[in-house]
From TrEMBL:
<dbReference type="InterPro" id="IPR052342">
    <property type="entry name" value="MCH/BMMD"/>
</dbReference>
<dbReference type="InterPro" id="IPR002539">
    <property type="entry name" value="MaoC-like_dom"/>
</dbReference>
<dbReference type="InterPro" id="IPR029069">
    <property type="entry name" value="HotDog_dom_sf"/>
</dbReference>
<dbReference type="Pfam" id="PF01575">
    <property type="entry name" value="MaoC_dehydratas"/>
</dbReference>
<feature type="domain" description="MaoC-like">
    <location>
        <begin position="10"/>
        <end position="118"/>
    </location>
</feature>
<protein>
    <submittedName>
        <fullName>Acyl dehydratase</fullName>
    </submittedName>
</protein>
Length: 152
């Protein structure tokens, strides 16, 4: 199991996730179609070319989902009870086909669960960066995590 238990985290813990992902045209098109998002900026090369960006923009919800997904193996894999919410989602820079994205995570909050003595809430600040080290997406994620068993 790669994730950490609630009581193994400290505020300020920071992880630079190893996995990187270059976004393909197929990624963007399939994600847009699967989520019924007909925005021409995502799926119509001619419309996108005529926009201020001059090219197809990657669907922002794909970028968000990829950022969270890149973090799971190092943060909550095997220890998650539930994601409780996402907050302060921003996308300060556009993502284009061919951009290579990576993620970083910082622990910004820890709170014991009042209703579950075997769990606690970790608040993560996730950041997604492109190949130029520009932040293209960030958010806070509140995750209810199990506490480590007594034998660990």
């Amino acid at each position: 199991m790669a994730g950490k238990y609630f009581n193994q985290w400290q505020i300020g813990d920071t992880i630079v996730h190893d996995i990187r992902r270059s976004v393909t045209e197929t990624d963007n098109l399939l994600f847009s179609v699967m989520t019924h998002n007909p925005q021409p900026l995502h799926i119509d090369a001619e419309a996108a070319k005529a926009s201020e960006f001059g090219q197809i923009l990657v669907n922002g919800t794909f970028t968000f989902a990829l950022m969270v997904g890149l973090s799971v193996g190092d943060t909550t894999l095997g220890t998650l009870v539930a994601n409780l919410g996402y907050d302060k989602l921003i996308m300060p820079k556009p993502v284009f086909i061919g951009d290579t994205l990576r993620a970083e995570t910082e622990v910004i909050g820890l709170k014991e669960s009042k209703s579950r003595p075997d769990a606690g809430v970790v608040t993560f600040l996730h950041r997604c960066l492109n190949q130029r080290d520009e932040v293209v997406c960030s958010c806070e994620r509140a995750a209810l995590l199990k506490k480590a068993p007594a034998d660990i």
